[in-house]
Amino acid sequence: MAPIAAADIPSLTLLYKLRKLDKAPTTPVAGATPQNNDRVALLRGDITTLAVDAIVNAANNSLLGGGGVDGAIHRAAGRGLLRECRGLHGCDTGRAKITDAYDLPCRKVIHTVGPVYDGLRPERSEAALRGCYHSSLELAVEHGLKTVAFSGISTGIYGYPSLDACQVACDTVKRFMDQNGDKLDKVVFVTFEAKDVRSYDETLPLYFPPDTETSVDQEKAAEDQAAEAKATASKLPDVPTTDPAQIDSDHAQKKQKQDGES
Ligand code: AR6
Predict the structure, then answer these.
(1) 254 in a domain, yes or no?
(2) What's 119's domain CATH number?
(3) What domain range is 24 assigned to?
(4) I want to staple 105 with a disulfide (CB 3.0 to 4.6 A). Which of 10, 51, 138, 250 is the partner?
(5) How far apart are CA 13 and CA 40, in angstroms?
(6) 262 part of a folded domain
(7) Residue with the nearest Cα to atom 33 of ligand 1?
(8) Which of 55, 69, 158 to mutate to test the pocket of ligand 1 (most atoms within 8 A of CB)?
(9) Domain Macro: where (predicted)?
(10) Is residue 122 part of a domain?
(11) Ligand 1 in contact with 196 (CB < 6 A)?
(12) Residue with the nearest Cα to atom 28 of ligand 1?
């Protein structure tokens, strides 16, 4: 598959304009603004095809490859990636390390280790997952990488409930962008499975709501459309209020009466 350039990945601003993303039916989270909508993007697809500065791998503590997106990244990158990973001596959960990208179309791979979801201590899982997103973004900035694509850390084999993981991802990215947004050009959330597509469609508008001007534009367009429809309707002939059969019978009766009189 041909690599997808960062510039071709639709930002939230564009997705709202195209009506591919709708504003949230409930009030966005406190402090949510549209200020980062040009720099946050959403794409469903295979992360190994993205020609961005860095892709973020959902790795394990060994950093020596595995299944899921990790397996896909190692397969597409080739043996050089595994060789470099061997020299990193693993990575702690909630942290991240960086390597070259070898045969991948991106420039670097950031490997982060998400938590295996712990339903008995969800707050621990949440703290570790926040750590993954935060340390990956910190690494990106440190290395001057401006376009970064995240896979859904922990939402596959590690069993983090999709919607919960998505909220943590959006919240952590939002906080980071609020403070360091100028250091990044695009942060892409990459979805793969339908459950994650639904989670992001639902959650992104709560953290990155559409610009009210866009909404005002949309409302204005709807009002204009309604006015146009009204104007067109006024040019149409009046709707008959009498049943055509009744008109015919009245007409016949009148004619009979006239004929009788003459
Ligand atoms: N592109 C984008 N996203 C993908 C792709 C792909 N090619 N393939 C899968 N996903 P997972 P985890 C999504 O299981 O839960 C590995 O064995 C997938 O739909 O890859 O963090 C590691 O070595 C899901 O939303 O990672 C670890 O041992 C997301 O990627 C363990 O799995 C993450 O799913 C890590 O588990």
Answers:
(1) no
(2) 3.40.220.10
(3) 4-213
(4) 51
(5) 8
(6) no
(7) 156
(8) 69
(9) 27-208
(10) yes
(11) yes
(12) 60
Task: Find out whether the beta carbon of 155 lies less than 6 Å from any atom of ligand 1.
Answer: yes
What is the predicted pLDDT for the residue at 262? Answer: 46
pLDDT tens digits, residue range 45-94?
999 999 999 999 999 999 999 999 999 999 999 999 999 999 999 999 99
Share of the chain above pLDDT 70, in %: 81
Quote the DSSP letter at residue 201.
H
pLDDT class of 181 with cuts at 50, 70, 90: confident
Contact 33, 84 (CB under 8 A): no
Q: Is the CB of 115 under 6 A from ligand 1?
A: no
Structure tokens at 235: 């040019």
**What is the pTM (predicted TM-score) of this model?**
0.84
Residues 115-150 pLDDT 10s: 999 999 999 999 999 999 999 999 999 999 999 999
CA of 192 to the centre of ligand 1 (A): 9
Question: Could you give the angle at the alpha carbon of 99 between the alpha carbons of 5 and 161, nearest 5°?
Answer: 75
- Number of domains, the chain: 1
Ligand 1 atom with the shortest distance to the CA of 159:
15
Residue to substitute in 88, 151, 190, 195 for testing ligand 1 pocket (most ligand atoms within 8 angstroms of CB)? 151
Packing angle, helices 122-142 and 162-180, rounded to 10: 40
CA 118 from centroid of its chain's CA atoms: 26
Q: Is residue 173 part of a domain?
A: yes
User: What residues does 21 pair with on adjacent strands?
Assistant: none
Total residue count of the chain as it appears in this document: 262
75, 83, 88, 89, 128 from 66: Cα distances, Å: 10, 14, 16, 16, 20
